[in-house]
From TrEMBL, chain B:
This is Cbb3-type cytochrome oxidase assembly protein CcoS. NCBIfam families: ccoS. The chain crosses the membrane at residues 6-26. The gene is ccoS. Keywords: Membrane, Transmembrane, Transmembrane helix. The keyword Glycoprotein does not apply. It comes from Winogradskyella damuponensis. The keyword Transmembrane helix applies. InterPro entries: Cyt_oxidase_maturation_cbb3.
């Protein structure tokens, strides 16, 4: 049978596509979205991009909390009279069609006056008339066309976000001053001693002075502040010599023009600060669409349905849940607090927490933990704790989450700066002492000249440009790094710790092995066809693993929720499901997930599921084992021990049954013994370990959706490249060391001019930008070559 | 007053004017999102096409 892809979402339509207007759709949801667009002349949506849509999800009752006044208040950024503005995060935004349809929302609801997409941040800012419509209907409209906004507890706390544009302003001021001062200083460089120029010299000079004021006191203020802080903490960071150089440049230049000694170094001063700020700006590569700071709040819903004593359902904020409250969890909703299941069949997907995708069945009276997602109809539960005291959320009260990893880490620039500053001061004092004896009038001149020319602009630029460029290269390769210091830390690690489930195993497919009596052909067909009708995750997995069979119509099919499936076709009567349901007399406790099968009430056998490991795991471990200590730290039981032993190099440590706190403590202990730890994990249960480690990398099948707080996010498809990324970080450190050599070379030339008392403003004006530019060129070319090798 | 003062003040005023425009542009937030506008400007065509379509329909009615 020819398989077609859905016109709306691009998924495989399977064997029974829904046809509408000669187009095939995979489900009614997709067809409905098409109908909506078709009626409103919005089919351009499909012209811009092939199958851009998403299947609209069942959302009944999910957004009821949006009618609450206090929640609307928190989510809207502007409310007045009849106008409301809200910015909604929509993970599905991924192509130009998305932008187009979302910016034409007013065709679907005329009360929406304006909607603007920010593609980078994946948000849409909607302005609507709150008299005629409300936030809830806007969200429902978005959901109905497949763009379900993601509203989490995070939105509730963050309030109005403030964008910090200070660096751009500072850069603007410096650029303006640099350009103008250069023009004003040119005449003196080229036309010396001309009559009319002589006459206006003071005017030119004071104009330059005026322009340098905002540069020194506004653009460069961060360097002074940082140098002051460094000195206070008794650290000679790179900003100390910079601040020293800048103040000497400014003071000497001002004195020179005051007493008409010379033209000053205002152009070098402006250029220096401009280049430094460009470097800072370049390093500031941010990924708007990613968040490295997520905690449980980004996963949790903002409101939940509470059932009061009279049996009425109310939406309440998650923070208002108290011990003893009855709450209602709908299908696909997240459990926000620890509690006891009262009513309904719970099938909890703890994949956010553990990375394990297999669902867990719970009976009435069982304990439910926060962070699980209900996947099977409606359940009622009683809260045992409040949100912040739940088992999972308590992890975030650990101190590691308040620690800034960059503190206490001396980066390569500051390491060299310590020696550099001492060396320069020594040179300055020796040269001054020498000149005091030879020609004391020149001594002060030489002293300041040394400090000016040695201002380590080129050194300060090496790291920002190397790391900034490497961040971009990694980003293109789907390895998203939080900031430049992470690359430096990555180059230093000596221990690599992996989580198991979801990190080295893939969520998408698992393997199943059959163990028992062979099934006859007819039984096989019934098995495959009954699995086809079931939506249980295990059925879906098993269905995709089993061989293709004929499609038949079953005579009877019944799914017993939480137990299994019963299916009948001609003479075959099959039961598929848990051991007790199937009637397996001698069920021994096994560690792995199993599905049992019986035919005509005779027990046949079971399918045992094994983790399927990511491609290249074995190769990656073999590459890593030569240089690093390897550890697997798993929250699961030892069911996979034998498989892992076969797969991984012998020296890999395998540790099972680790709770989130255990993982954190394990890393802490190894760090205290001098290990530099790289932790690779995926679920919220790794959050503590990721925060504690020197570098925490979260692995993610879909980088846009979920990943716990970390230093870097790695796309799962690039997992096997990890070793190369570490190597590239090491090479980046080498590049920086080489560019230090280059800048020392320029410094020696400069020091020659300075110590011999011949430093003219024009020499400084040529030498300083030249050294900066050659560093920029060198690091950029070298990192690009590195990037080429990565590909 | 020499011409040089006029020339210089003109050049500085122009420089300051551009600088102020730059600051205003940053303030208005137009550098916050540097991708979406590049896509958005290409949509103008689709919208016009649609308008002409609808106007044609009204004519035939």
């Amino acid at each position: 049978m020819e398989s077609k892809t859905c016109f709306h979402c691009g998924d495989d339509c399977g064997n029974h596509p829904i046809t509408f207007q000669d187009k095939s759709f995979c489900c009614n949801g997709c067809k409905t979205v098409f109908e909506i667009f078709n009626e409103n002349d919005l089919t351009c949506y499909y012209d811009l991009q092939n199958s851009p849509g998403a299947i609209p999800k069942e959302i009944e009752g999910k957004f009821d909390f949006l009618s609450q006044e206090n929640i609307i208040e928190k989510l809207t950024e502007f409310r007045a009279d009849s106008v409301e503005i809200a910015t909604l995060y929509i993970p599905h935004i991924h192509c130009s069609s998305c932008i187009w349809i979302l910016e034409n929302l007013n065709k679907l609801n005329p009360n929406i006056s304006d909607s603007q997409v920010n593609f980078g941040k994946k948000t849409v800012r909607v302005t609507y008339n709150s008299d005629a419509t409300d936030l809830k209907s806007v969200v429902l409209l978005l959901s109905s066309i497949g763009y379900e906004p993601y509203i989490s507890l995070d939105d509730f706390n963050s309030g109005k976000k403030h964008i910090n544009r200070a660096l751009i302003y500072k850069l603007g001021v410096a650029a303006f001053g640099f350009g103008n001062i250069m023009f004003l200083s040119f005449p003196e460089y080229f036309e010396v001693n001309e009559f009319w120029l002589e006459q206006y010299k003071p005017f030119f000079r004071w104009l330059m002075f005026a322009m340098s004021l905002p540069i020194v006191f506004y653009s460069a203020q961060d360097y002074f502040i940082s140098a002051y802080k460094g000195l206070k903490a008794k650290i000679l960071n790179i900003d100390v010599p910079i601040a020293l150089g800048v103040s000497v440049l400014f003071i000497r230049s001002t004195i020179e023009i005051m007493f008409d000694i010379g033209s000053g170094f205002f152009d070098s001063l402006a250029g220096l600060i401009f280049f430094l700020l460009v470097g800072k700006f370049f390093q500031q590569k941010t990924y708007d669409f990613l968040s490295f700071e997520r905690d449980y709040k980004s996963y949790f819903p903002i409101a939940i349905t509470k059932i009061d004593k009279e049996g009425n359902e109310n939406s309440i904020q998650v923070y208002d849940i108290e011990k003893g409250d009855r709450i209602l969890i709908r299908n696909e909703e997240l459990i926000p607090v620890d509690g006891i299941l009262i009513n309904g069949k719970a099938k909890i997907d703890y994949s956010f927490v553990t990375g394990e995708s297999q669902t867990v069945s719970k009976q009435s009276g069982d304990k439910l933990f926060a962070g699980g997602k209900q996947t099977n109809g409606v359940i009622e539960m009683e809260a045992l704790k409040s949100v912040e005291q739940s088992y999972l959320t308590q992890l975030w009260s650990n101190d590691v989450f308040n620690k800034n990893k960059e503190d206490g880490f001396t980066n390569i620039t500051n390491t060299i700066s310590k020696h550099f500053t001492i060396a320069i001061l020594t040179v300055a004092f020796i040269a001054t002492t020498f000149w005091l004896f030879v020609d004391s009038s020149k001594a002060m001149n030489v002293f300041t000249a040394v400090l000016i020319i040695a201002c380590p602009c080129a050194i300060a630029l090496s790291a920002p440009f190397t790391f900034g460029n490497l961040l971009r290269i990694f980003g293109k390769q789907k390895f998203y790094i939080k900031n430049a210091s992470v690359i430096e830390q990555l180059a230093q690690i000596n221990t690599v710790i992996f989580d198991k489930t979801g990190t080295i195993t893939s969520n998408k497919n698992s393997n199943a092995e059959y163990d028992g009596e062979l099934l006859s052909d007819s039984e096989h067909i019934v098995l495959k066809n009954s699995l086809r009708g079931s939506n249980h995750p295990l059925s879906r997995t098993l269905y995709t693993i089993l061989k293709e069979n004929n499609i038949i119509t079953l005579d009877a099919f019944e799914e017993h929720i939480g137990k299994g499936i019963e299916a009948k076709h001609e003479s075959v009567n099959m039961k598929i499901g848990s051991a007790s349901f199937v009637g397996n007399p001698n069920e021994s406790t096994v560690l792995n997930t199993t599905v049992h099968v019986s035919s005509n009430n005779v027990y046949k056998g079971k399918f045992t599921f094994y983790n399927s490991y990511r491609k290249g795991v074995s190769k990656l471990f073999n590459q890593l084992k030569r240089h690093f200590d390897l550890v697997i730290l798993s929250g699961d039981n030892e069911g996979e021990l034998e498989n892992l032993k076969k797969l991984l190099p012998a020296k890999t440590k395998l540790i099972f049954n680790q709770k989130p706190e255990d993982k954190l403590e394990f890393i802490k202990y190894h760090q205290s013994e001098g290990a530099k730890v790289l932790m690779i994990g995926d679920g919220l249960n790794d959050a503590g370990a990721l925060a504690q480690s020197d570098v925490g990398i979260a692995i993610s099948e879909d980088v846009n959706v979920f990943s716990p707080a970390c230093d870097a996010i790695l796309d799962a498809s690039k997992f096997k490249q990890l070793y190369n990324y570490i190597l590239a970080s090491k090479s980046a450190i080498k590049i920086i060391k080489w560019s230090f050599v280059v800048s020392f070379f320029y410094n020696i030339i400069g020091l020659y001019f300075a110590t011999t008392g011949q430093l003219e403003p024009v020499v400084a004006a040529i030498l300083m930008p030249l050294s900066s530019i050659s560093i920029v060129v060198f690091t950029t070319v070298a990192t690009n070559l590195l990037g080429k090798r990565l590909e | 007053m020499s011409v040089i003062y006029i020339l210089l003040s003109v050049s500085v005023v122009i420089g300051v004017a551009f600088f102020v425009i730059f600051i205003m542009a940053v303030k208005s937030g137009q550098y916050d999102d540097d991708y979406t506008p590049s896509v958005r400007m290409l949509f103008e065509d689709e919208l016009i096409k649609e308008q002409t379509n609808t106007s044609k329909q009204t004519k035939t009615d």
